[in-house]
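Quick one, T. Sequence first:
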Amino acid sequence: MGQCVTKCKNPTSSLGSKSGDKEGGSKSHHKKGGSGHKEEQNAPCSKGIGELSNGTKALEVTVETPVISAVMGEPHKDMGLDGDGLSMLRIEELFYCYKDEHEDAILEEGMEMFCIDLCVDPAEFRVLVLAWKFQAATMCKFTRKEFIDGCKAIKADSLEGICSRFPVMLLDAKGEENFKDLYRFTFQFGLDADEGQRSLQRDIAIALWHLVFTQNSPSILEHWLDFLSENPSSIRGISRDTWNMFLNFTQAIGPDLSNYSEEEAWPSLFDTFVEWELERRKKEEEQMAKEEEGRCSDSECSPTTDRLETEGSRGSQTWGGH
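Structure tokens:
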């Protein structure tokens, strides 16, 4: 993992960063060192990762390390392993490597550093799946409970452990019921809780639709997203009902849209989309027909016609000679 840190991309996504152009995300960790805050030196991060992105060298954690109770202000209840062989101490210390100075949670800059140390781009599907497994309520944030419960849920207590679980998590996300749960989670995850949002901004919804369908993209998806992009004035937000029903739409309606009926209880936005898409296809077919006619211009078709006429006349002469 230490070697992997230098190979990762800079975070650019709203999953790990709300801004997308932060200075590498190291600000929060340098800030801790610069202010005389010594907790970073006292709390060794997860074993075996070499060197973390904040410059802290990883040390081996032992049960004798007395840092958590001193830092957190309360005694550590379980210094050993749980039933799955996970070290609660290591999970808490891993959390502490990325937590905010003032809030008991991993916030935007800590999330950027966490993604770098996991060697994942915050824009990729694996980060969304991890947030789903951690049941994160807010984008760019893991509370202590979400992080600890999430690590226990995926059975990992280190960066290496989390990385090793990605293939299993991705496989889980392919299951029909699991994907449905992930899909519904994604809508809630994309809302701005601080603003009290009840619908997704159009651009965020488009990005999240691209992301959540990474492993199995329905054929109609790109046309649906084109429709949303080309009609910004009439589509300002995506409601929860529209988001949820789109998954049903992709499963129930065929690629040719022939079995779509406005009489059924689809959101009105779907009616508008189907009309738009059928009109688009009609224009596309007409354009293709014109291009086909253009290929058969007089200059291209005449030699063929002349050749057929010549061959026909030769045939007549031959038969006539007999």
